[in-house]
């Protein structure tokens, strides 16, 4: 958990965000939706929704009945994931300005990962 304020942006700078609240440890998502939207895995952390200050034009896509995904309509950067009715929202670790002070602590939805690599015992990718 990090209590440091965080700031991030999309690739083109159209969407910027700041988080002023507690941030969870990071996770790497291997689900099919994240793989298809991002081209591989999605590294993210969570913070209370009310701690976000977002500027710019975020496009929200209802990826399922239970969640929406926020991205920049100009450059396509996948920035946010918000579960319906959840108090916290996930955000892309790759969009943050460094240093973040955040560490990835887990992989999630590993059973759905691509067949082109294996996750090593230490969390690193290995050849299949």
TrEMBL record:
Coiled-coil stretches noted in the UniProt entry, renumbered to this chain: none
Keywords in alphabetical order: Lyase, Metal-binding, Zinc
Domain CENP-V/GFA: 6-118
InterPro entries named among the record's database cross-references: CENP-V/GFA, Mss4-like_sf
Record GO terms (molecular function): carbon-sulfur lyase activity; metal ion binding
Family the UniProt entry places it in: Belongs to the Gfa family.
Protein's name in the database: Uncharacterized conserved protein
Native source organism of the sequence: Aliiruegeria lutimaris
């Amino acid at each position: 958990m990090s209590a440091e304020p965080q700031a991030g942006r999309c690739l083109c700078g159209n969407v910027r965000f700041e988080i002023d609240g507690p941030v969870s440890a990071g996770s790497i998502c291997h689900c099919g939706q994240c793989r298809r939207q991002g081209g591989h895995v999605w590294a993210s952390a969570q913070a209370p929704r009310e701690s976000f200050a977002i500027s710019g034009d975020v496009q929200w896509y209802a990826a399922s009945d239970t969640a929406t995904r926020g991205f920049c309509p100009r450059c396509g950067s996948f920035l946010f994931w918000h579960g319906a009715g959840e108090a916290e929202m996930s955000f892309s670790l790759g969009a943050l300005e460094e240093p973040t002070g955040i560490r990835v602590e887990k992989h999630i939805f590993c059973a759905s990962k691509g067949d082109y690599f294996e996750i090593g015992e230490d969390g690193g990718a290995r050849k299949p």
